[in-house]
Automatic annotation (TrEMBL):
<dbReference type="GO" id="GO:0071398">
    <property type="term" value="P:cellular response to fatty acid"/>
</dbReference>
<comment type="pathway">
    <text>Alkene biosynthesis; ethylene biosynthesis via S-adenosyl-L-methionine; ethylene from S-adenosyl-L-methionine: step 2/2.</text>
</comment>
<keyword id="KW-0847">Vitamin C</keyword>
<dbReference type="InterPro" id="IPR044861">
    <property type="entry name" value="IPNS-like_FE2OG_OXY"/>
</dbReference>
<dbReference type="Pfam" id="PF03171">
    <property type="entry name" value="2OG-FeII_Oxy"/>
</dbReference>
<keyword id="KW-0479">Metal-binding</keyword>
<comment type="similarity">
    <text>Belongs to the iron/ascorbate-dependent oxidoreductase family.</text>
</comment>
<keyword id="KW-0560">Oxidoreductase</keyword>
<dbReference type="GO" id="GO:0016706">
    <property type="term" value="F:2-oxoglutarate-dependent dioxygenase activity"/>
</dbReference>
<dbReference type="GO" id="GO:0009693">
    <property type="term" value="P:ethylene biosynthetic process"/>
</dbReference>
<dbReference type="InterPro" id="IPR027443">
    <property type="entry name" value="IPNS-like_sf"/>
</dbReference>
<dbReference type="InterPro" id="IPR026992">
    <property type="entry name" value="DIOX_N"/>
</dbReference>
<dbReference type="InterPro" id="IPR005123">
    <property type="entry name" value="Oxoglu/Fe-dep_dioxygenase_dom"/>
</dbReference>
<keyword id="KW-0408">Iron</keyword>
<dbReference type="GO" id="GO:0009815">
    <property type="term" value="F:1-aminocyclopropane-1-carboxylate oxidase activity"/>
</dbReference>
<protein>
    <recommendedName>
        <fullName>aminocyclopropanecarboxylate oxidase</fullName>
        <ecNumber>1.14.17.4</ecNumber>
    </recommendedName>
</protein>
<feature type="domain" description="Fe2OG dioxygenase">
    <location>
        <begin position="156"/>
        <end position="256"/>
    </location>
</feature>
């Protein structure tokens, strides 16, 4: 299908000029109607981004490709004669930045790669916090409100998922990453500038999130939907596989701290509020088992502990 609707691209440098109001309105519209937008002129140095991309691709070749191929063999996925619905065609590793960095525990990273990812992570953390304040402004919440909610007693959780989606002989048989909404707060994605694959669900259609050199894709997680009482939405997205090309993506998740208390902001809540209040970690325990299912039953289940156990018996939320 031809893509007729235009994916929102926000030029952040316009926030410092005459077009500030239109730019803020564009961000607000994207948060309400897309759950996604792409930013350019975000302040991240392009040479750092190029370096991170290059080293991520080298790291995959050197340290991940063999493991990925072994995984395919062990799961019998080389042939792909039937549809596979319980595995993702992706190779990943995780870096945690906050509350404590694990950057120096990851094996097989060159010093140069580690240093670049540290710098990249710090800049994305600052960018995430700036974006949260733009959201606060649009939502009529006091400056710093979201950051404060996410802080809990230990500060936010911030981590990076480094992924490669290798070429796939049967793209119709398996997804790179199955459809899901993200559980957390705000997600900043640096994706391959050539190989596409990310799609979001809008009004029943899967829409491509187009590669755009040196841009960062932003999307909102379930927690922002709860805090905004549904004014903003977390939106289903997936990665499709491609016959040609290895797609790189680096997704950084700025999430609440484990003991942060999440609930609709009082100025946005209404009598008919449909969203629950909970401790973030309890939501994550539930999410772990039902990530690839719709979010609505999760929100529903968080209103009552028995329902949580029914949806995901492993979650066992404690209530006192
Ligand atoms: C995710 C995700 C998209 C991508 O990891 O939650 O949606 O392009 N990733 O890797
Ligand atoms: Ni996601």
């Amino acid at each position: 299908m031809e893509q007729t609707i235009k994916f929102p691209v926000v030029n952040l440098s316009k926030l410092n000029g005459e077009e500030r109001d239109q730019t803020m309105a564009l961000i607000n519209d994207a948060c309400e109607n897309w759950g996604f937008f792409e930013i350019v002129n975000h302040g991240l140095p392009h040479d750092l981004m190029d370096n991170v991309e290059k080293m991520t691709k080298e790291h995959y070749k050197k340290s991940m490709e063999q493991k990925f191929n072994d995984m395919l063999r062990s799961k019998g996925l080389e042939k792909l004669e039937t549809e596979v619905e319980d595995v993702d065609w992706e190779s990943t590793f995780y870096l945690r930045h906050l509350p404590q960095s694990n950057l120096y525990d990851i094996p097989d990273m060159s010093d140069e790669y580690r240093t670049a990812m540290k710098d990249f992570g710090k800049r994305l953390e600052n960018l995430a916090e700036d974006l949260l304040d733009l959201l606060c402004e649009n939502l009529g919440l006091e400056n710093g409100y979201l950051k404060k909610v996410f802080h809990g007693t230990k500060g936010p959780t911030f981590g990076t998922k480094v992924s490669n989606y290798p070429p796939c002989p049967g793209p119709e048989m398996i997804k790179g990453l199955r459809a899901h909404t993200d559980a957390g707060g705000i997600i900043l994605l640096f994706q391959d500038d050539k190989v596409s694959g990310l799609q979001l669900l809008k009004d029943g259609d899967w829409i491509d999130v187009p590669p755009l050199n040196h841009s960062i894709v932003i999307n909102l997680g379930d927690q922002l939907e709860v805090i905004t009482n549904g004014k903003y939405k977390s939106v289903m997205h997936r990665v499709v596989t491609q016959k040609e090309g290895n797609r790189m993506s680096i997704a950084s998740f700025y999430n609440p701290g484990s003991d942060a208390e999440i609930s609709p902001a009082s100025s946005l809540a209404s009598k008919e509020t449909e969203y629950p209040s909970f401790v973030f970690d309890d939501y994550m325990k539930l999410y772990a088992g039902v990530k690839f299912q719709p979010k609505e039953p999760r929100f529903e289940a968080m209103k009552n502990a028995t329902a949580v156990t029914e949806l995901n018996p492993a979650a066992s939320v404690e209530t006192f």
